[in-house]
Amino acid sequence: MDKLIVQGQKRLVGEVAISGAKNAAVAVIPAAIMADGVSVIENLPCIEDVSCICHTIEKLGGKCVYRDRHTLELDCRGKIDYRATFEEVQKIRASYYFLGALLGRYKKAEVALPGGCNFGVRPIDLHLKGFRALGATIEEKDGMVCAYADRLIGTSIYMDQVSVGATINIILAASMAEGVTTIENAAKEPHVVDTANYLNMMGANIKGAGTDVIRIKGVEKLHGAQYTIIPDQIEAGTYMIAAAITGGDVLVKNIIPKHMDSLTAKLDEMNVTIEEHDDSIRVTANRPLHCANVKTMSYPGFPTDLQPQVAALLSVCQGESVITENVWDNRYQYIEELQKLGAKIKIEGRIAHIQGVPALKGANVCATDLRAGAAMILAALAAEGESVIEGVRYIDRGYEDIEHKFNALGANIVRVK
Ligand code: UD1
Predict the structure, then answer these.
(1) What atom of ligand 1 comes closest to residue 125's alpha carbon?
(2) Is the CB of 103 under 6 A from ligand 1?
């Protein structure tokens, strides 16, 4: 298993280009199987989760051909299997999108229950409730979720809780239902909008994505389309925080600055200088860094997927900061690892109290999940001496070329196989 060896206290300076959004890619690729046609998806991130989704498409009978490292041609003409029962499906949580996509196209889907990062209970009851409202019958048997319908009929769905996955999954199925579906209290994340935009290019009729009411008028057929994935908000945020934690000066390029508003507001509070351009943000750290309170929320609130990274940063800010995790029940498993690096953090339920320390110290730590892994790298970059990070396979799921991007900014990270 790979490890990363990080020599700390290197100031990051320079420019970094952000890849396409993981969470958009893992929804857009399954959406492609709804068309009896060929789609070309550009700006795909070169990460494990995307490979896993592509393997699933191939096992279902579609063809995936890379035109270059970031451009994928997806040929879903002809018969696609409606059963995704194999091991790849269980590796990532986003494979639940095959349920909505297959149910939309074939009115039947059998998909192995999703896996992914383990931070607390990750139910899919809202997805299933949405499919039932559209007229599907759901059965769970032998670790599989099976959805069948004679017809899918548009309806009004109120989401009890804001859920990105359920919103996208209902959009997928409803795109090929009869009549109009309205989703209220929908998630507004950029990747919800991205998936809806791609489906609209395929001939779907979706309005209101990005607001909390989405209206989908079902269509009979979808066709292939060419589409460019949006930049990754979370990868961008990770490099912005890296600039701050290393006292650096980094231009984070190929991003949509609007998507970063909740983070830029916090960094500003922490005494970090932010300079926004059309598609880039320059982050320049000042000393001292100030403490801040962060509450995670659905978009446009502060993303839970940047919570571990910002915790690493707050560990070296002056004073006491408080993080409130409002999205996931158990997203503090990594705190113990951060403590090994010298962070002073106390957890009370959903709240983390962080007492800033003057410096972290290198240690051997483990990436407990994808974003926790990113937080370990950030903390190790700021720490005195050498750190060894294990569990790198989690990080590879969602960050393209991570050590190369950091090293180009002046970090010293070596991967050991
Ligand atoms: C997506 C992201 C994940 C991110 C999360 C929140 C992808 C592939 N993953 O996950 O990185 O952390 O959004 O921004 O896009 N819930 C239910 N029942 C459901 C579904 C969700 O109770 O059926 C709850 C969850 O337990 C959680 C909350 O709703 O507390 C939000 O989850 P959701 O937005 O659905 O997360 P994912 O789409 O799985």
Answers:
(1) 23
(2) no
Tell me the CA–centroid distance for residue 11 and ligand 1, in Å.
35
> Which of 156, 126, 294, 271 lies closest to 216, judged by CA?
156
Tens digit of pLDDT for each residue in 74-95? 999 998 999 998 777 878 889 9
Cα 334 to ligand 1 centroid, rounded to whole Å: 19
Which atom of ligand 1 is found nearest the CA of 303?
14
Residue 53, ligand 1, Cβ within 6 A: no
Ramachandran angles phi, psi of 285, nearest 5°: -85, 145
309-312-315 Cα angle (round to 5): 150
Separation of CA 165 and ligand 1 centre (Å): 6
Q: In the structure, what pLDDT confidence band is assigned to residue 240 with cuts at 50, 70 and 90?
A: very high
Cα 332 to Cα 143, 242, 346, 373: the distances in Å are: 27, 20, 10, 12
Cα–Cα distance for residue pair 60/64, rounded to 1 Å: 11
Ligand 1 mean position, distance from CA 289 (Å): 31
- Torsions phi, psi for 254 (to 5 deg): 65, 50
Buried b (16+ CB within 10 A) or exposed e, 48-87: bbbbbbbbbbebbebebeeeeebebbbbbeeebebbbeee
Spot the catalytic one: 54, 64, 76, 117.
117
- Concerning whether 117 is annotated as a catalytic residue, the answer is yes
Q: Is the pLDDT of residue 117 over 70?
A: no
Contact 356, 380 (CB under 8 A): no
Provide the b/e sequence for 139-177 (b: ≥16 CB within 10 Å): eeeeebbbbbbeebbbbebebeebbbbbbbbbbbbbbbb
Which atom of ligand 1 is the closest one to the Cα of 120?
A: 26
Is the minimum distance from the CB of 233 to ligand 1 under 6 angstroms? no
